[in-house]
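Cross-check.
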Amino acid sequence: MNPVGQPLQQRALSMRIILSGIIGIILFISFQVLPSFFASSAEGDTTAISKAEAREHATAFAAQHLGYMEGDNNEWSVIYKSDSSFYGYMSREKLLEEYTRNKLDQRYPYDVFRAALYSSEEQDTILSVDLNMYTGDVVGFARGAEAASGDVPGNVSKPVASSEESGTALSLEQKETLARPWLKEWGVNPAKLQIEPDSENYELVYTDSSIKVGESRLKYSFNFSESEVTSFMAGFSAPGWHTSYVEEQTSLAKLLTLFGYGLPTLALGILALIYSILKRGHTSFARGVLLSSVHFVIMMISTYNMEPQTSDGSAEARITAVIMFVIYALYSLLMSSLLYFSLVGGNGLWRKEEGLNPWPRAKEPGYGKYVLDSIRAGYIWAFVLLGVQTIMFIILSYTLNNWSTTDATQSPYNMRYAWLLPIVAWLAGLSEEAIYRLFGIRMLKKIVRSTLAASLITTLIWAFGHTLYPIYPISSRPIELTVIGLLFSYIFLRYGFIAVMFSHVVFDSILMGATLIFMKESVNIGAGIFAIVMPFLVGYVVYRFNPPQKPRQVEPSNSLI
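Predicted model, tokenized:
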């Protein structure tokens, strides 16, 4: 960081750091990008069908097999669903490659597009059809109350009206008679199946002992109501011990998020407000307005983009949507306010307490060149961080046997516009570096009297905020991010706020850009590439608007003296 009052000049990158960045990006590509690329190539065409195509497939199936016709009062919506429990089990037990090699993922996919038919007359979802998201083949359906429940196949949590509850109890023989045509439709011989007694979620479950994935056997599950099949699902489910483990880990993650991240971050926000007032003579309340406003706008756009797209037009759904929008808006306002006071308070603390200029003003001489050099440092350090992350993943896989699973709620497939995913990188780069580095380090240094200790504490707070990601055991993510966070702290202390902000943005933009590129649609590929180069474009625009000032030329004097 530059001392206050001295000309702006970004610290030069040493050849050792540049080489480390080159090695880092090579490691990232070799161990994170190429394995995914080759796995995707081995699976053949893994480009997802469009949601419009999914609606067409669902409409045709509903009309041909279930007697549902499109009408003015019916409307389809499509969302992405994933059986994260079963995928996590396969990931944990190293069964994914075998599952794909045996082509079980095509006939019994764990990721599906669910097309739901909403009836405005009944004010509810009356049918849901699950489709292979790559081929469009139907893999399951539910109608009536089961369709309205919206649960993941095999994980029904809401009670539905069974044949017994509806007053038309069916015998086992009658259920088998109703199920048999559907099994034949799926190309299954009922004679080779065994009936599973006492199924928890379904009225009739067949198992095929000849097809197993680890401890999980293939199941064909049915529910009935009024002498008709109301749901049919074929596939696998995770063993009970695995589900219990995930539930215990998730409960622990919620506690760590609340007490390790939520409450300490709130405390930092209150302190930021206080020190913004106390150090007002060494900072400016006008400086953080623009960045905080941009942050708020991006948060609202991201929130809108991640809202599930459903066709449920009931009054209850509309009221719920309005309430959730207000809650998201208030949360966005709170986080943007926290960013604002962290910028103002952090800038004042460093200037007053250390005599350093962590966040230079645009009017300072050399600002444009300083930002351009900070961008260069940000990219190189982002490459270093990607390499370090790759090494951490390898170490944790051998020491903690960590594994990950899917999360449909965060998937770009459930976003209105997947290509907007990388804007989240700017949210993280702005807010997290302002709160935990610009303000947090100097604030905690006043208490612990050590820059290293202050950096470690703020890093741990930041790391605990990522424990709800679907990575297990949940201790693996804080360990990884403690190393990453300490490097962010080093970048901030050595290069300043602008450089660390850009390093964070570039780091996340590369990860999110790669996600879009692997979706294989031309729009998403273009958006992914653009996301990776956008930080440079932003920095270059700032540079062009703040060019180096040329030294004034002294006018020759006309005086004869």
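The first strand starts at residue 2 and ends at 3. The radius of gyration is 28 Å. Passed to J.P. for a second look.
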